[in-house]
Design goal:
Elements (H helix, E strand, L loop, with lengths): L4 H11 L3 H10 L4 H18 L7 E8 L5 E9 L2 H4 L2 H16 L5 H5 L2 E2 L2 E2 H12 L4 E9 L3 E6 L5 E7 L6 H14 L11 H17 L4 H19 L5 E2 L2 E5 H7 L5 E8 L5
Length: about 280
């Protein structure tokens, strides 16, 4: 049957798909718009599968936090190009996915894909975005944080890096919390305290330090002691509360918090595009 230009335009306006794709879908569906939309979705799924080996290292990190700072969500949505990430429609869709995660207390990407939004699962929404945009698009990370203390959210300009920091009590000055969240963003600590560092990593660092000292000709017993000194420096670089505070290197993060009568950090989450797959 003959497909009019007006019908093609109507389907394109409904779906955002390309003109030729819309014309082919309408022809295949004998002019039935619902069937044509279904055909486009199926084509979107095929596009997604074809692009499964493509790198999706661009995108957005977004956060939402409630008014009393006791619940927050952090979401990473990925695409292939920065051009798409800066598109307003992509950003609006990402925001709606974040809100769905927050409102449904979702703490992982797989569960978020099953949530319905405007009559479709988020997984189907992603398929439609792939068909429309022509890039691999996926939600890689969803984090839910709750606390009896205080949560602080920090999104670095450009939305490629985000942090949620949990403080063990009431934090009256949010700027202090932002400072610490920015510290996490910039300095990439492994954990809040030494106890949180993986023991195998500690053993490896100790072994490397000792081997270096032995290679320098140090006796075994001296190498053992000096390696422990190097391990202390490792903790100062990789443990948040022991790190030098970026805004004032004369104090550690813990000393900065104590000087300002602020509660200590209890936990943190850090998401950076392409680093948390």
């Amino acid at each position: 049957m003959s497909i009019s230009a007006a019908d093609v335009k109507k389907l394109r306006d409904m779906t955002g798909a390309g003109m030729m794709d819309c014309k082919k879908a309408l022809s295949e569906a004998d002019g039935d718009f619902d069937r044509a939309v279904e055909i486009l979705r199926k084509k979107g799924q095929k596009v997604s599968e074809k692009r499964s080996d493509r790198e999706a290292n661009q995108g957005l990190i977004l956060s939402r936090i409630n008014d009393d700072k006791t619940k927050a969500s952090l979401l990473e949505i990925n695409c292939e190009t920065d051009f798409v990430a800066r598109n307003q429609e992509f950003q609006d869709d990402a925001e709606s996915f974040l809100n769905a995660a927050f409102e449904n207390d979702i703490d992982n990407a797989d569960d978020l894909l099953k949530i319905e939004l405007d009559g479709l699962t988020i997984e189907k929404h992603l398929e439609e975005m792939v068909g429309k945009i022509g890039e691999k698009i996926e939600i890689n990370n969803v984090i839910l944080a709750t606390t009896e203390g205080t949560l602080i959210s920090y999104i670095h300009p450009g939305n490629q890096l985000g942090v949620l920091a949990e403080f063990d009590g009431d934090l009256t000055d949010e700027e202090i919390g932002k400072d610490v969240a920015m510290q996490v963003a910039a300095m990439k600590p492994l954990s809040v305290t030494r106890d949180g560092v993986d023991s195998s990593l500690v053993e490896k660092e100790l072994e490397i330090a000792k081997e270096q000292l032995l290679n320098e000709g140090k006796p075994e017993h001296i190498a053992e002691q000096a390696a422990k000194g190097k391990l202390r420096r490792f903790y100062e670089e990789r443990v948040l509360l022991e790190q030098k505070f970026v805004k004032d290197n004369s104090v550690s993060v813990q000393q900065y918090l104590e000087q300002n009568d602020a509660p200590l950090v209890k936990s943190f989450h850090r998401l950076q595009l392409g680093e948390n797959d």
